[in-house]
Amino acid sequence: MLKSSFQEILIEAGVDEAGRGCLAGPVIAAAVILPLNFSDERLNDSKQLSEKQRNVMRSVIEKEAIAWAVALADNHEIDQVNILNASFLAMHRAIEALKTKPGLLLIDGNRFRPYENIQHKCIVKGDSLYQSIAAASILAKTYRDEFMIRISEDYPVYLWEKNKGYPTEKHRTAILENGFTPFHRLSFSFQRNLF
Fold this sequence. Notes:
By secondary structure, the chain is of the alpha/beta class. The chain contains seven helices and five strands, in the order ββαβααββαααα.
């Protein structure tokens, strides 16, 4: 069972991102503030859920959360500032968009650039430990998947509706045969990733 909170004095927002390891598309982050009494045994790290389960939980999260927001940094921004900084940028944008201001940010992972004067706590594998981070992981993943499915209609050869921009063999082969699209991250080491 996931923990409902890290502490109970400050309002907590769980923050996570999706798409860091992709060759194409944006990195998308989500920030979620859940009620202290929130409980749903179906809530889990997005990677542990099926697509159908993620979509069910997304609806629950969006309905039950005190506040939630999703934001992105696109592939051009990733090329300009690198994927780590772009992840922080997307996270900051999601936090900024929250309608309720948190007093503590629970960040999935081990690195974060502080946002304004809000305290934060980095938690490795936090999406499998805390409800708010798991909720953020679900929103980030489902919104990013939707984005990739939508743009795949214009670039069907890359199979983004299936691989979501990750470096699968078919995606890498499609790049070798057809070149890059306006959604590819040109700063990534394609020589290393393609072979």
